[in-house]
Design goal:
With 506 residues, the protein is an all-alpha fold. Helices cover 71% and strands 0% of the residues. Helix 7 runs antiparallel to helix 8 and helix 21 runs antiparallel to helix 22. The longest helix is centred in the last third of the chain and has 30 residues. The two termini are 45 Å apart.
Length: 506
């Protein structure tokens, strides 16, 4: 009898302290559904704070260098801006800025900070996924979040310490970018452990709204703190992220097994929709203990294809993220130019469209059980959406808003689907024979490759827009076309499987 009780005692001891406290206060074990809700809420909050801390630098740029662009969204040196546009910008000559960024090369310095951040973030993603599959994801994510909060706060500490060394701020941003890379592979891996494939697309599509929530909340917090001193614009989001990191440590259950939930438990099998509530990795083949290698993960069918697809998909999405407010403020809409503040607020409609697109793409892919067909269809639809936004977006404010919403829906829909549900699907691919320790590595490969495109898109836009915005939109439409074409083989495989000719491979 003692041997039967021993594993259950060990399961209790491995549960996060917060979970044990919840069970103690409830005087009963948490149900499977409750665990799922807990995972969704905590990971949503976690990645919301990741995005919130990313936005701080863009909001504070005009305070550092009053002569920099007031759009505050482009991470690239001012030499890449259209010369005619720079000459027409309104410059706040009364502000003194912050050395060393208030000199003639200030905008270039600020650009280098963001380039360093994005570079370390994209390449760090590969290593983060590799490590995430080899360590406790709860502890790994906690270290990443607390560390990011620390370095974000250290950046703001330069305000009170009166630091004016460019090297200090550069090193801080590099470490912050590296630590930020721990987030995405970890949260997607945890979600993949708890949600079966049948409704994963819809659930993760709704959950992926954290991107927009984080961007908006980060902008609002940083902006509100500026009047108290720019240091607070970094310290407050940094402390908030560290706090949520502690919530992750105390409350996040990484897998059903880690908290004693399995196929024998009531919450997992008595639901009429067993496939929905059952974790994808539950039951079946014996789980291997050895984490998958980096090169092995690349060989999983579909990983390389979706990784390259996301490269071009994020190139389009992040070009809009960094350049859309600037584009709006310098484009005549119904015969008038909007202020930078109004343009920034208006650009959030693209994020709203992205939320709708993420949910819609997830729902459709679940109903059709066809991730590749859904992703490719959205990317092809984004081509006319981008074309019409460029041509007819200047007609009126209402037309601009409507077309921006549609463009955001088709651009961000497949981005959300590939970086969440597709990554989780491939991280639990049948070729792994039940190995659960591949989710973080696969997610990191796909999103890390996409992040390289996210850095490249805005950089190319800086050069191309100096000659023509039509050239920028042509680049984006070509990228969307290539993204869709890369999925052709998988689309054909899914289509033939639906028609009953062959067994589906993905």
């Amino acid at each position: 009898m003692g041997s039967l009780e021993e594993p259950r005692t060990e399961e209790r001891s491995s549960r996060p302290l917060g979970v044990r406290w919840l069970e103690y206060t409830r005087k009963s074990r948490l149900s499977f559904r409750t665990y799922q809700a807990l995972v969704l809420i905590i990971t949503f909050l976690a990645y919301t704070t990741y995005h919130a801390t990313r936005k701080t630098t863009s909001i504070v740029k005009s305070t550092f260098d009053p002569q920099s662009t007031t759009s505050g969204f482009s991470p690239w040196p001012s030499a890449h801006f259209p010369r005619a546009v720079r000459q027409n910008q309104v410059v706040n000559l009364t502000a003194s800025g912050w050395a060393p960024f208030n000199c003639s090369d200030g905008t270039e310095m600020l650009g280098f900070l963001d380039v360093a951040f994005l570079t370390l973030y994209s390449f760090g993603m590969y290593f983060a996924g590799h490590l995430g599959d080899r360590f406790d994801l709860r502890l790994f994510l906690t270290i990443g979040m607390v560390g990011t909060g620390l370095f974000t706060s250290l950046f703001g500490a330069g305000y009170w310490l009166n630091i004016h060394s460019f090297a200090y701020f550069l090193v801080i941003q590099m470490f912050a970018g590296l630590l930020q890379s721990t987030g995405w592979p970890s949260v997607v891996a945890v979600l993949g452990n708890w949600f079966g494939k049948s409704r994963r697309g819809l659930i993760l599509g709704i959950w992926n709204a954290h991107t927009s929530v984080g961007n908006i909340s980060g902008s609002l917090i940083a902006g509100a703190m500026l009047k108290h001193g720019w240091g607070w614009s970094f310290v407050v989001p940094g402390l908030l992220m560290a706090f949520v990191g502690l919530l992750v440590f105390f409350f996040l259950p990484v897998t059903p097994d880690s908290v004693g939930i399995d196929d024998e438990d009531e919450g997992a099998v008595k639901s009429p929709q067993k496939e929905i509530s059952k974790p994808l990795l539950g039951g079946g083949a014996e789980v291997k203990e050895k984490a998958i290698g980096f090169l092995e993960a690349w060989k999983i069918p579909g990983v390389a294809t979706f990784a390259l697809c996301l490269f071009f998909c994020k190139l389009v999405a992040y070009t809009f993220l960094y350049w859309l407010p600037f584009y709006i403020s310098h484009t005549e809409i119904n015969g008038e130019y909007l202020s930078d503040e109004t343009a920034g607020n208006l650009s959030t409609i693209f994020d709203v469209g992205g939320v709708i697109g993420g949910i819609l793409a997830g729902h459709i892919s679940d109903r059709l059980d066809a991730r590749a067909i859904t992703s490719a269809s959205f990317m092809y639809c984004s081509i006319p959406a981008l074309f019409f936004y460029r041509i007819y977006g200047e007609a009126s404010l209402v037309m601009n808003m409507a077309l921006m919403l549609i463009a955001g829906m088709f651009v961000n829909g497949p981005y959300a689907l590939i970086s969440t549900a597709v990554s989780a699907d491939l991280g639990t691919h049948g070729s792994l024979n039940g190995n659960s320790r591949a989710l973080a590595t696969v997610t990191a490969i796909i999103d890390g490759t996409g992040s390289v495109g996210a850095a490249l898109g805005p950089l190319l836009t800086g050069y191309i827009s100096a000659k023509s915005w039509n050239g920028v939109f042509t680049m984006l439409m070509v990228a969307a076309l290539v993204s869709g074409l890369l999925l052709t083989k998988l689309v054909v495989a899914e289509a033939t499987a639906k028609l009953g000719f062959v067994d589906e491979q993905i």
